[in-house]
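Researcher: Going back to the complex we discussed earlier. I've cleaned up the inputs and rechecked each line, so this should be the final set. Can you rerun the prediction on the complete assembly and write out the structure?
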Amino acid sequence: MGFLDEVPRLDRLIERLESSEGLDDLQIVIEELRDGYSIDHMLYHWVNSNGDQYGCGTYPLDWVNRYVEKGYLRVDPVIIGCFQRFHPVDWKRLDWSGKAARAFMQDAINHGIGNQGYSIPIRGPNGQFAHFTLSHNCSDEDWQEFTTKNRRDLILIAHSFNQKALDFQPGRTPEPSQSLSPREIEAMTLLAIGYSRAQAADTLSISEHTLRVYVESARHKLGALNTTHAVARALNRGLIVI
Amino acid sequence: MGFLDEVPRLDRLIERLESSEGLDDLQIVIEELRDGYSIDHMLYHWVNSNGDQYGCGTYPLDWVNRYVEKGYLRVDPVIIGCFQRFHPVDWKRLDWSGKAARAFMQDAINHGIGNQGYSIPIRGPNGQFAHFTLSHNCSDEDWQEFTTKNRRDLILIAHSFNQKALDFQPGRTPEPSQSLSPREIEAMTLLAIGYSRAQAADTLSISEHTLRVYVESARHKLGALNTTHAVARALNRGLIVI
DNA sequence: ATCCTACTCCCCAAAAACTGCGAGGGGGCG
DNA sequence: CGCCCCCTCGCAGTTTTTGGGGAGTAGGAT
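Model: Rerun complete. Updated structure for the full complex:
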């Protein structure tokens, strides 16, 4: 039975997923999911804000190692594309125009990754990001049919999988950082959108000295080395939004 | 037939949702969804980065107006809670301890919002955020049963609804920006993690002058007013990750 | 083959940010 | 009531960043 005919029962898959009891178990689950859909590969890949990664899936081990060693995280169009997208995306719709991207794809195919792929971005607070990816070797038409048919189920599986993975790795959700006071938030937000200290102070109708106090205070709370760093951290932690 | 017995067919709901053809249509769809589940209220609520809001749902109009006027966005535990959470959440698990939060809840109930609620956070790139919320008036046990039974379907509906809402409001998704060169990315990343220009230049083993060229170049590409702004934009657009 | 982009280096003066200090009023919470 | 946090304002000297300029090499794209 080919991967186009196979339509596993969603509730059974989800039940199996939700009954998993640890990270090792998730590895088994994802292999079962892969087999259930009769495709080549399935992957859950978490990317931490600082570039740390956690993954589990059916990609060949040497490819995973190569990926990490080569720093492909910064090249991989799947990561880049998913990161700035809302919705699941077929790999064909990603940007493969760069030289590095094409070299990466060739390298991936050489390591047994399929020519087709479908990736579902998953997000959490503070820019936390993961993606759930399927890969296979087949024609464009077949892949189109497969993804169209299974899209909904896959979205649900992706989110359930992410939930489970998070449950088992509580450390990945950073402790909520010290929050900023309303004035500090306003000050940092204005700086983040390009205002100089003088402009920001003017906008808030306070003296520049006062504004500086806020920025300093925020900087200390955030453990930042300078204003730019503080703004970056505040953005990263979702304390301010621009 | 009560809301506990009613289990609408998911595929029909999604089909109806995906066949919608505009924002007005979505309003009708969400009313149909609400009726389909036989609950009091259903709401899709988008919160823009700058505090702008877009919503559609079955909340009473005077409550919606009051919500906007009173600036409840900054008080609403549903917003605050969903914003820092990964997964769907029952309103009972939110933090209602603050004085403002309790006053808000009382006000909401007075305006016909149910005592029970379930909210699904939805996220996009750049901290974009929405939530899909159900509300009803019933006992804790009944609500527990309802949410447990329909959780999966609701997650899928929430994401599909968000996708549709985005399709109809293309302005909400910012156009992808010009990408940065590798050196520019390195430079901006180092600045974003707190390095001074001198330190960053040293780290990259280039002169500070050269580093400045990168930063300037990145700033121009990003249309940023200064370095801090450029770093903020680069982070926001996912061009750099810290 | 040619053009364009990325990468590297240099100068200089003005503007802005950083560091660290001190000080008082208001509000919430135990 | 006292404590702590938030908001507001001030001074001053040092360091850093920020505006533009120009100029050469190398490699990829058309």
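Model: Worth noting: The beta strands of chain A are 41-47, 53-57, 89-90, 116-123, 129-136.
Researcher: Good, that matches what I expected from the previous run.
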